[in-house]
């Protein structure tokens, strides 16, 4: 009966197709629990969270986490703003930005380490490069959606730059600021994850604590991280931003590894990322291209195709699990369902869930459940269900209900969900690309997605193979993004808020 209330019939069709594909994906998915005592490990972890050892927290790791995030977002947002101006007019700019944001921060870091080593530059650029592409797209949308009435009264002959600065920028400044602050929260999550590959952020100490069973220290680090995220609005303000940027620059860690950046960059560009057959023969020699084909074929058949299939399987199951989780969780954050006392607790719970990076959550679950696809699915589903559920709860609070509206389950099933279902699908389809992007990097933890083969290639110093595999993840991500946009357009939900920060920008919550 619920589906009958969903106005466009295609909502039901799309939902059933996604559910059917996810059920089919369960067949090849590896969902085994291989740990001998998962519940005992989980109890030790919970005991560490209940008894955190704050004295064990390395203070400099907190400083570096904030510093990497602040400088990375400053560079990424600045470049994104410059790219946003020509974004709508030039397809080449849109393509460059799409490729930048399709590569996960961990993949960027693994490549940048070949040039900069374990240095501040690696951590900062690993955040700045994808964030430049993300910010360019979002800033462009914000600028395009802005009120144009101010442009109609500018004097004739006013230059394009002056017209933008004085007529359009004041209109969109608040939205740009809000979104940039949200990206800082995302950057802190990304910086935390970069610690898992050796950069000296909180993630480095978290990984060490979890691996060695020091759960009290791990719990303290998590609490400090959640405090950073939760208090962001207090210490990131217009007047504190310049101070944060200067302080971050002064407190960045020293370079570890090679300091000869220019020779490393030349070697990286001219040798390491060039396919090995092209380094060993003349480009005009047919034998060179024959060797290139022989080199490429096993990469495609033995790594790209199986890795892409596993990435899609993981992403599809996680997407549907996210949908189910969000539908279950969103009443916790709605006053209509949770009440005045339950709503704040529900929101705090979902803020904590959404602030926990998927990669870190998957790592923790991997220690408790053993190596399989199950920890990655749970991590993706929990994190994204927290995001979508939080937003849906805010939208539910904004719905006008009639005086004789039902209560309880009837209110949920016959009044609230049918009216929010279009918005619900908009969020899910927008998260689809992001879930796929995260699914690829879980290969670094041992899941046989594309990231598994990327990590193996980099470990063996076959950087040319790693670049081809990362390019495959870009293509796969762009295809899913294109399909997502097509579905949103077909369902006529492409104009609804989709980004986590968008309701906040537009005053609708979230």
TrEMBL record:
Q: What InterPro entries does the database record attribute to this sequence?
A: MetI-like_sf
Question: Which residue ranges run through the membrane?
Answer: 59-85, 106-129, 149-167, 187-206, 313-333, 372-392, 434-453, 465-483
Which coarse location class describes where this protein primarily resides? membrane
Entry keywords, A to Z = Cell membrane, Membrane, Transmembrane, Transmembrane helix, Transport
Instruction: Kindly state one GO CC term assigned in the UniProt record.
Output: plasma membrane
Identify its membrane topology class.
Multi-pass membrane protein
* Location relative to the cell: Cell membrane
Q: Classify the source by domain of life.
A: Bacteria
How is this protein named in the record?
ABC transporter permease
Lineage of source species: Bacteria, Pseudomonadati, Pseudomonadota, Alphaproteobacteria, Hyphomicrobiales
């Amino acid at each position: 009966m619920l589906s009958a209330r969903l106005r466009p019939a295609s909502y039901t069709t799309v939902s059933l197709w996604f559910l059917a594909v996810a059920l089919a994906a369960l067949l090849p998915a590896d969902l085994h629990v291989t740990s001998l005592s998962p519940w005992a490990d989980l109890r030790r972890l919970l005991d560490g969270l209940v008894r955190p050892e704050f004295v064990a927290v390395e203070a400099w790791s907190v400083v570096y986490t904030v510093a990497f995030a602040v400088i990375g977002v400053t560079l990424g947002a600045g470049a994104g703003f410059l790219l946003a101006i020509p974004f709508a007019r030039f397809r080449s700019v849109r393509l460059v930005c799409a490729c930048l944001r399709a590569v996960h921060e961990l993949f960027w870091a693994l490549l940048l380490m070949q040039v900069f080593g374990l240095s501040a530059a690696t951590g900062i650029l690993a955040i700045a490069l994808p964030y430049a592409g993300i910010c360019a797209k979002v800033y462009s949308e914000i600028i395009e959606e802005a009120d144009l009435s101010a442009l109609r009264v500018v004097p004739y002959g006013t230059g394009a730059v002056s017209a933008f600065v004085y007529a359009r920028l004041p209109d969109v400044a608040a939205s740009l600021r809000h979104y940039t602050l949200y990206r800082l929260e995302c950057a802190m999550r990304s910086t935390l994850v970069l610690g898992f590959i050796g950069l000296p952020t909180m993630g480095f100490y978290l990984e060490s604590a979890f691996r060695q069973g020091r759960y009290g220290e791990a719990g303290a680090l998590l609490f400090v991280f959640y405090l950073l995220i939760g208090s962001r609005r207090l210490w990131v303000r217009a007047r504190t931003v310049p101070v944060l940027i200067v302080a971050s620059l002064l407190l960045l860690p020293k370079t570890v590894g090679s300091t000869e950046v220019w020779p490393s960059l030349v070697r990286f560009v001219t040798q390491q990322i060039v396919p090995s057959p092209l380094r060993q023969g003349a480009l005009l020699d047919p034998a060179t291209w024959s060797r290139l084909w022989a080199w490429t074929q096993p990469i495609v058949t033995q790594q790209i195709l199986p890795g892409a299939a596993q990435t899609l399987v993981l992403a599809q199951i996680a997407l549907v699990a996210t949908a189910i989780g969000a539908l279950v969780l969103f009443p916790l954050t709605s006053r209509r369902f949770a009440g005045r006392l339950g709503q704040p607790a529900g929101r705090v719970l979902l803020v904590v869930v959404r602030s926990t990076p998927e990669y870190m959550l998957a790592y923790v679950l991997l220690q408790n459940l053993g190596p399989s696809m199950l920890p990655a699915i749970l991590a993706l589903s929990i994190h994204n269900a927290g995001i979508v559920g939080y937003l849906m709860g805010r939208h539910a609070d904004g719905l006008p209900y009639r005086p004789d509206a039902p209560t309880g389950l009837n209110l949920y099933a016959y009044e609230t969900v049918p009216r929010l279902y279009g918005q619900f699908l908009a969020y899910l389809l927008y998260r689809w690309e992001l879930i796929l992007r995260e699914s690829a990097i879980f290969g670094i933890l041992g899941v046989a997605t594309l990231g598994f083969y990327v990590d193996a290639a980099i470990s063996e110093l076959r950087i040319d193979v790693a670049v081809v595999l990362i390019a495959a993840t870009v293509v796969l991500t762009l295809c899913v993004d294109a399909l997502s946009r097509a579905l949103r357009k077909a369902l006529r939900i492409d104009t609804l808020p989709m980004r986590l920060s968008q309701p906040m920008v537009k005053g609708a919550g979230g």
